[in-house]
UniProtKB/TrEMBL annotation:
Belongs to the NnrE/AIBP family. Belongs to the NnrD/CARKD family. The gene is nnrD. Its EC number is 4.2.1.136, 5.1.99.6. Residues 9-217 form the YjeF N-terminal domain. (6S)-NADPHX binds at residues 58-62, 130-136, 159, 325, 376, 440. Residues 227-499 form the YjeF C-terminal domain. This is Bifunctional NAD(P)H-hydrate repair enzyme. GO terms for molecular function: ADP-dependent NAD(P)H-hydrate dehydratase activity; ATP binding; kinase activity; metal ion binding; NAD(P)HX epimerase activity. AMP binds at residues 411-415, 439.
Length: 515
């Protein structure tokens, strides 16, 4: 699913109005009806108090139009206009008049002097600012926003939590509504998925207001949301006459004294991801451990007992996953440096290999083309330096990706895969995956996919999706706390099978089928 910028949404808006020969207020009416239907379906006329806080732009206009529908259906409504500017939008004014026709008089708020009382069981509809926010709100508006956040009421935001910029980082975190639910028009916004701003959204849903499908289809976006539909097109079926050679050979290079487990996890994950053959290259200390715990995996060893000192092997793998558990000792840095200098094979680079690259930036130019780097936030910071907000981070990663012709997997709650100017935002995974070794499993999965001939970008995107999906399947039986990295491997099979599961029909349809 594409993630459109505010500029693109406004463009879609204009094109739709022109093509359909409708007024902009008709589009607002569509939006308001969608909002109303969503609420009405869930509330079924319940006499709960609904406080609608509306700005003076089109987001506020949506709120005012929604208020009219709620009033028409007998809901218990209180409307407030947060009067932060004299420049009221045309469609806001049209809808304000329509509301007044129903003898509903909003409270106009020009300061934070009189903040309304809001009960814990009430509902707040947040229509103060939408995607038109272009500067930090005034202090008195921030106070109102704080007042709403401090209430115990359920907050439903129209389009985007008020105070959140669509395409830039926030400068005042106090000025943002903390939404329980966001009903976002046509497209979710990138900020819903970034670590700094994603915390302002508990749940979101897209309402289709029928913006011009042609424009939406042909318009390229900087970011895409990755779900099942997106990865299904990448999936490579197994061939009837395929043999283990068809599905590639993964070489996992890693480990040091006390950290052989990471290599076990990566190697096992590569196998479960479908790699035809898997070999692990470890210090001697890892030999018996791997041979006993993973009979399917072949093992090569360094000349040193405890750490990697000389990475040499007599085989031609399809891809190499390097870095898990290697440490950053001088000898290992040397071994990795000379390996990278001579290597031409595709790479997946993780953990301490990334830390070594960070300390020895000259090595970055030795990476084979389309190498996949999988840093967690701390490793990323070492690699690209710190950032002022998530947008600066993304811009820096894009530059890095272009400069070194590599793919960067920014791991986190919504992992983002960056390739040049484009970012792919993953939707699977859960906080249970914040556990030791979880990243080692991801390295193995991506390596295993790359071995099977998936292009680098597909391997990174599909690998991240599968990793998260197996976490989501695992958590159903482990709970968040007890999920371990090994569960992620055990449930990878389920993640593959789930790709081809038909979606469950809604309950209503199931009942109809039975009758
Ligand atoms: N596009 C679509 O498909 C559809 C969109 N729809 C809805 O429209 C919403 C966008 O509406 P919008 O453009 O009127 O902007 P909105 O967010 O209401 O802000 C209002 C104005 O406030 C101003 N302003 C900005 N920051 C400020 C600040 N800190 N303090 C004070 N003032 C500030 C700024 O004007 P300025 O003062 O800069 O001239 C801005 O224009 C969108 O989110 C959705 O809900 C639907 O109706 C149907 C179809
Ligand atoms: N809250 C979360 N939601 C979803 N995925 C998460 C969350 N926390 C961590 N993960 C995933 O778990 C993995 C953790 O990787 P990493 O920090 O390298 O772990 P380790 O070094 O222990 O192997 C990443 O793939 C990350 O995206
Ligand atoms: K809003």
């Amino acid at each position: 699913m594409k993630l459109y910028s505010a500029k693109q949404i406004y463009k879609a808006d204009q094109i739709s109005i022109k093509k359909e020969e409708i007024g902009s207020n008709e589009l607002m009416e569509r939006a308001a009806l969608q909002l109303f239907n969503w609420m009405h379906l869930r509330m079924q006329g319940a006499p709960v108090k609904i406080h609608l806080f509306c700005g003076i732009g089109n987001n506020g206009g949506d709120g005012i139009a929604l208020a009219r529908h709620l009033v028409d259906h007998g809901y218990n409504v209180e409307v407030y206009v947060v009067n932060y500017s004299e420049k009221r939008s045309k469609d806001f004014l049209i809808n304000l008049d329509r509301l007044k026709d129903r003898k509903v008089w909003p409270h106009f708020m020009n300061s934070d002097d009189e903040l309304p009382q809001i009960g814990g069981e009430d509902i707040i509809v947040d229509g103060i600012f939408g995607i038109g926010l272009n500067r930090t709100p005034d202090e008195w508006v921030v106070k109102i926003i704080q007042h709403l956040n401090n209430s115990k009421a359920f907050i439903l935001s129209i389009d985007i939590p008020s105070g959140l910029f669509t395409d830039q980082g926030p400068d005042n975190f106090q000025a943002i509504i903390k939404s329980n639910y966001v009903l976002s028009f046509q497209t979710p916004k990138l900020v819903f998925f970034l670590p700094e701003t994603g915390t302002f959204i508990e749940q979101w849903e897209v309402l289709d207001i029928g913006l011009d499908p042609e424009y939406l289809r042909v318009t390229e976006t900087d970011y895409e949301l990755i779900g099942k539909n997106e990865v299904l097109t990448m999936y490579k079926p197994r061939e009837k006459y395929g043999h283990k050679g068809t599905y590639g050979h993964s070489l996992i290079i890693g480990g040091s004294y006390g950290k052989i487990g990471s290599v076990c996890l990566s190697s096992r994950a590569a196998l479960h991801a479908g790699s035809g053959l898997v070999t692990s290259f470890v210090p001697k200390i890892g030999y018996s451990i791997l041979q006993t715990s993973l009979p399917e995996v072949m093992v090569l060893t360094d000349t040193d007992e405890n750490e990697l000192t000389d990475i040499k092997f007599n085989l031609e793998p399809s891809v190499i996953g390097v870095g898990v558990g290697i440490g950053t000792s001088e000898v290992t840095i040397k071994a990795l440096s000379s390996f990278l200098k001579s290597n031409k094979l595709p790479l997946v680079i993780d953990a301490d290999a990334l830390n070594i690259l960070s300390k020895n930036k000259a090595l970055l130019k030795d990476l084979s083309e389309d190498s996949i780097l999988t840093p967690h936030p701390k490793e990323l910071e070492r690699l690209i330096g710190n950032w002022k907000d998530d947008f600066e981070k993304l811009a820096k990663v894009k530059e890095f990706s272009k400069k070194y012709k590599c793919i960067v997997v920014i791991k986190g709650a919504h992992t983002i895969i960056v390739h040049g100017e484009k970012g792919y935002v993953n939707t699977t995974g859960n906080p249970g995956m914040a556990t030791a070794g979880s990243g080692d499993v991801l390295t193995g999965i991506i390596t295993g996919l790359r071995a099977q001939g998936y292009p680098a970008l597909d391997a990174a995107i599909f690998g991240v999706y599968l990793h998260g999906r197996s976490g989501d399947i695992a958590v159903e039986s482990t709970g968040f706390q007890s999920l371990t990295a090994s569960h992620l491997i055990a449930n990878l099979a389920g993640a593959f099978i789930d790709l081809f599961k038909m979606p469950e029909p809604p309950e209503v349809e199931k009942e109809n089928q039975q009758n």
